[in-house]
Amino acid sequence: MAIYRLQIKAVTRGTGRTATSAAAYRAGERIRDERTGALYDHRKRTDVLHKEIFLPSRLDGAAAEMGWARDRPALWNAAEKAEQRSDSRVAREFQVALPRELSAEQRLALARVFSREVADRYNVAVDLAIHAPRPEGDPRNHHAHLLATTREVTPAGLGPKTGLDRKGEIRSELGLPTSREEFASIRAKWAELANAALREASVEARVDHRSLEAQGIDREPTPRLPWAAIRAERRGQRSEVAERIREEYRQRVAARREKAAQKGVQGPAAPSADSAPQPAPPQEPALPQDMDSRRRQAVQDWLNYRSGLEPAGAGQGSGVSPPLSMDELRRRAVEQWRSLQARGAESRPSEAGRRDHDAGRDRAEAERASDTPGLGDEFSG
User: Fold this and answer.
1) Domain boundary residue among 181, 209, 237?
2) Nearest to 220 by CA among 264, 187, 257
3) pLDDT, tens digit, 9 for 90 and up, residues 304-358
4) Among 124, 241, 338, 370, which residue carries the largest CB count within 10 Å?
5) Minimal CA–CA distance to 78: which of 158, 12, 22?
């Protein structure tokens, strides 16, 4: 069975990433970031099978003016220079699993068709890199990275934001679908292209972009393990993260089986002719309809719960407490909220800690396998 995978990720400065670093790593090239002066050299990579830059078809007649966009260092340095904010989104990546049932030539053709689709759909430049399965990984993990600009590409340079990177209000004004609808559409398009390639290759396997529930398949989705956990286990080390994910998966599977068994045993039984009518089960009290009453009820339930945690005898002799006024409820709720805020402030990470965390994540970018195996738990260890 062919595996469907399309992961759409953003490359943002807020997470310490750059478009130049992402492009150099995926293409296995040496690129210097002209904005920061950082040098990214990944020429030692041997798993890059193909790399190519695609521009929108409407620019085919402007080949002379578009030379800068076909030059990888120039393109991604332009993407970095076009953004001024410290949290800007500088690129967007589409990572796809290429069907192992296809030949190398057929996988290349499929990846090129999808790259052209993305470039024409959003009027952006798309930097395609096809990677072979890692020697220490799953041999079926053929995949491709499509690194796209977040701005329209023109003969004069990069233009306004486009595609998935337009703000919600702008998309609404232009009559464009929401981001969620756009994600669903591009996922469906990849499934359509992949299935067309499989059909042309006379392969019976098909992929489906829909969820298991939408497909009518009653089973738990296979969990995905972080690449760091997979790599640790392959070195013979124990990964608590992987063990926890597997245990949670087993618990979900067991719960689903138990629920299915209960449905099979506790089906509706036909009433006998001489059976006495059974009393109706007690009904839950109806919730108040207006919002103010719901707030009052929620706060009262919380206070009742807290009073039940108090030591026995603390309220002896008081009898049944009279209903509290709304002002008293608000006062007690505010006290609880301030207490929670105070406790949260004590555990809030410092600014220096956040900077160290971001710096460590940036240093690990190159050695970390951003192109994760893309297979399930049963394939990854």
Assistant:
1) 209
2) 257
3) 655 655 444 444 444 445 556 667 766 776 776 666 555 554 444 445 444 554 4
4) 124
5) 158
